[in-house]
Amino acid sequence: MVSLTETSAGFECVVCAVEDHVATITLNRPDRRNALNYRAYDELEQAFRLATADPEVRCVIVTGTDPAFCSGDDVGEIMAGPKPVSRAPLPVTYQATPAALAVLECDKPVIAAVNGAAVGWGMELALFADIRIASDKAKFGELFVKRGLVCDVGGFYRLPAIVGPAKAAELLFTGDIFDAAEARRIGLVTEVVAHEDLMTRARAMASRIAANPPLAVRHLKAGLTRYAYGDPREIGAWAIEKIRLLMQTEDHKEGVASFLEKRPPVFRGR
C-alpha cells in the first residue's frame, strides 16, 4: 500500500503528513520564502502523486512554512544558475510542467492555505487548487511578465475561469501584486481569515470534505474539472514551449539580472 508519509520521509524541501484522511503538503524552504528549486519541484510532484495513490488520503491541503506560501521560482537557481546535467536541452516535444500536472491530476480535493506571498509559480500553485483560503497576510501576483516570460498553465487554464478573462488579462499583463482583500473581492479566494487561524480553518474544511463518501467526491471533482476548466495538458504544453523560447531572449535575461541586482529593468523587445 502506498503511504504518503512513509515514502516522503526523505524529502528535503517538502514536508508531508496525513491525519484523519487529510494530507498536508508543506513547502519547507522558509529561508528562500519557499521558492522552488529543481529539487523542490521534483518533491512537490512526487508528493502529489503519492497523495493521489494513497488510499488513506481523501483531501489535500497545500501550504508553505511561514513567512510565505511560495515565492515562485528560485531565480538564482532556476533562471540564472546552471541547469542540472541530468536535464536534457530543449525537447522536441513540449510537455506541461510535471509538478503542475501532478497537482491538477490529483483526483482528491485540494485546498490551498495561502499563508503569505503566492507569486509567480506560487500563484500558479494556488490556482491549481480547487479551493483557496487566504491568511490576511497573503499576497498574490502573476509576475512572469516582469521576467520576460509567460505564465504556466494556471494563468491560462484556471485564472480566466476564476476571475474572468478581462481581470485575468489585467493581472497577467501588469504583473501587479495584490493583497488578500482584493483576492477575495475578485473571487480568487473563498475567504480571508486571521493568519493564526488559517490552518485551523483549512483543516476544518478538509475534514468536512473527507467525511463525505470519497468516491462521490472524486466524481464531483472530475465533473467540475471537466466542465469548468477542460484538459490542461494542451495549454500546458503550449505554455512550456513559449516559456522555453522566451528564456532565450535578451528581455528575459534583463528581467532576471535586474531582479538579482535590485534595479529597474530596461526591456528592449528582443
Keywords:
4-stranded mixed β-sheet; 13 helices; 45% helix; 16% strand; 2-enoyl-CoA Hydratase, Chain A, domain 1; 270 residues; alpha/beta; 6-stranded mixed β-sheet; single chain
What percent of residues adopt helix (DSSP H or I)? 40-55%
Count of DSSP E strands?
A: 10
What is the approximate shape?
Answer: globular
Q: Largest beta sheet: what is the strand line-up?
A: 1-2-3-5-7-10
The major beta sheet can be summarized as:
6 strands, mixed
Overview of this structure, please?
With 270 residues, the protein is an alpha/beta fold. The chain has one domain (4-196, 216-261): 2-enoyl-CoA Hydratase, Chain A, domain 1. The protein has 13 helices and ten strands. The strands form two sheets. A six-stranded mixed sheet has the order 1-2-3-5-7-10, with helices on both faces. A four-stranded mixed sheet has the order 4-6-8-9. The longest helix has 16 residues, at 38-53.
What's this entry about, in short?
The chain is an alpha/beta fold. Helices cover 45% and strands 16% of the residues.
